[in-house]
């Protein structure tokens, strides 16, 4: 009993003592913490405020320089990779057999053409909605995609008419990361990690500078206006003279290249995340003169029906 009482009173005392003292030590702790925080804040202010105004600018420009040289290195690297790819992959100029071409046009018409995913892309809606995605760390990485079929025209008897192959692409979303979107034509296989226009047997109209590219990874040639989100870019090919032309929002930008007769695949490339919608004739082209044409020509609506009836 006694020992038990003693024990109880001691433990009660101890509890009270601890509780009472804790308030004090908590306050002490808070004071110490507060002091540390204030010192850190002052230290941070002391270090950062001048940096915000002077040294940071220098740091930023150094960073930009670094990023630029990093880009250059990557570009040189991918250039070498692309040249090696081209050296080891001969262009495949083969068209589907005439029979297959007729079959494609008879059964599906322009709906047969679809973009096919590769590299940093995803393609949905029957090959008509194209998404490219890049991580923020993927500096100056590029990716391109092609369609399942090239342009073709099995109707030899109408070859000498003003035949045109045509498609349009609308930029629906474009992240700040995008430097260039390239729309054009390539042969297959093409180095899928390079923009169309950079290498042999490829042509493209680039968004950032409005320049046209053909076997040219060194800046291109002055051609049209720049373009971006909301714009519709068309690419056409007249097989008779091997002419490639581009349009912007329905306006003809004139012939970009002549005498380039190849088995051309509609192509899109970019270096940043973006979303694009493709029109192979599914809806009216913005470029009115191309209405009734498509990737296999002439294909669309009334033209398509009368064309198929003639085959
Ligand atoms: C492509 O460009 C390279 C380098 O400028 C050149 O050597 C080559 O002959 C060109 N090829 C064609 C088909 O124009």
UniProtKB/TrEMBL annotation:
InterPro entries: B30.2/SPRY, B30.2/SPRY_sf, ConA-like_dom_sf, SPRY_dom, Ubq-SigPath_Reg. Pfam families: SPRY. Residues 90-285 form the B30.2/SPRY domain. The chain crosses the membrane at residues 29-53. Keywords: Membrane, Transmembrane, Transmembrane helix. This is SPRY-domain-containing protein.
């Amino acid at each position: 009993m006694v020992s038990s009482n003693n024990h109880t009173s001691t433990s009660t005392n101890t509890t009270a003592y601890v509780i009472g003292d804790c308030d004090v030590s908590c306050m002490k702790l808070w004071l110490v913490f507060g002091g540390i925080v204030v010192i850190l804040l002052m230290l941070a202010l002391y270090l950062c405020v001048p940096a915000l105004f002077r040294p940071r600018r220098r740091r930023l420009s150094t960073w930009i320089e670094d990023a630029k040289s990093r880009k250059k290195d990557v570009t040189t690297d991918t250039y070498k990779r692309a040249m090696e790819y081209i050296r080891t992959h001969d262009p495949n100029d083969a068209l589907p057999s005439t029979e297959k071409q007729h079959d494609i046009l008879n059964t599906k018409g322009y709906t047969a053409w679809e973009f096919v995913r590769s590299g940093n892309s995803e393609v949905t809606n029957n090959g008509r909605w194209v998404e490219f995605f890049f991580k923020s760390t993927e500096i100056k990485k590029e990716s391109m995609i092609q369609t399942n079929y090239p342009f073709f025209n099995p109707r030899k008897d109408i070859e000498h008419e003003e035949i045109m192959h045509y498609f349009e692409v609308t930029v629906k979303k474009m992240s700040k990361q995008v430097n260039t979107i390239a729309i054009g034509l390539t042969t297959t296989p093409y180095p899928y990690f390079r923009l169309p226009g950079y290498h042999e047997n490829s042509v493209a109209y680039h968004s950032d500078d409005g320049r046209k590219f053909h076997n040219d990874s060194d800046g291109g040639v002055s051609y049209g206006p720049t373009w971006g989100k909301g714009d519709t870019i068309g690419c056409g090919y007249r097989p008779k003279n091997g002419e490639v032309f581009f349009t912007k929002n329905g306006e003809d930008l004139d012939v970009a290249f002549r005498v380039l007769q190849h088995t051309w695949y509609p192509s899109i490339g970019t270096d940043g995340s973006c979303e694009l919608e493709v029109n192979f004739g599914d809806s009216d082209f913005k470029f009115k003169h191309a209405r009734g044409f498509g990737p296999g020509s002439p294909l669309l609506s009334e033209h398509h029906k009368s064309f198929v009836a003639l085959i």
